[in-house]
Amino acid sequence: MTKTIFITGASTGIGKATAKLFAAKGWNVIATMRKPEAEKELSRLNNVILLPLDVTDKEQIKQTTQKALTLGDIDVVFNNAGYALLGALEAITDEQLVRQMETNFLGVVRVTQAFIPYFRQKKAGLFITTGSSAGLMGFPVSSMYDASKWALEGWSESLSFELNEFGVGIKTIEPGLVATEIGTGSVIASHPAYETLLSKFLAATATDKTVSTAEQIADVVYQAATDGTNTLRYVCGDDAKSLYAQRLAVGDEAFREGIRQMLTGA
């Protein structure tokens, strides 16, 4: 029987690569995005249906999930929509910080909440979320982005216990840097007092040679969807694996000091 995946944020990057991979693997794909009418590639695939979804719009979440469920059984929900808000906290407006949490965290929570009754009743289903290595480690000039991803970590771990009661799974993929539009699509708030720190951090990420492709991360999403395990976290990408292993090996404080020294040279 053909399986179906529902994807948020499918217009670019990891979301689009995942939609294409699952479609190629014979799955039915419901790919959602803010402007499906502008999508030219996924719309040509026979087993892909495009639906509109802005994960900050609570009413549209209800409408789109209900519409998706009328199309047939859904097996996996991939909460992928998100973006990075970078810059010193002092430079970030209240509107910007609220939108970051509304998109990256509450958007995931609300989409998941909309599907839980369906999965609970059929006693099957899987939620996969695009987290980040920034949900496992804090980085400079990324406080609100990191906050949104750390929030997903605690939320997912806690939620796993209640979902498990009904045979429903939840998993988080945690890539490091990915060569997708999340880089060029980042919102960067600048403040003269922090310009040096911001510049050093952006330079360090720009020269990282271990950046993953969206397609490599899509492979991990497919693994998570099909491996039949109850694994909660999938750290992926050479940079994320290396940094996280280093943090676990040396401890939180030594790791934090290492990051500070790398950026200050002191």
TrEMBL record:
A Gene Ontology molecular function term of the record: oxidoreductase activity
A Pfam family per the record: adh_short
PANTHER family associated with the record: SHORT CHAIN DEHYDROGENASE, SHORT-CHAIN DEHYDROGENASE_REDUCTASE FAMILY PROTEIN
UniProt keyword annotation of Oxidoreductase present: yes
The organism's taxonomic lineage, starting at the top: Bacteria, Pseudomonadati, Bacteroidota, Cytophagia, Cytophagales
Species of origin: Spirosoma validum
Family: Belongs to the short-chain dehydrogenases/reductases (SDR) family.
Cited InterPro entries: NAD(P)-bd_dom_sf, SDR_fam, SDR_oxidoreductase
Key words of the record: Oxidoreductase
UniProt-recorded name of the protein: SDR family oxidoreductase
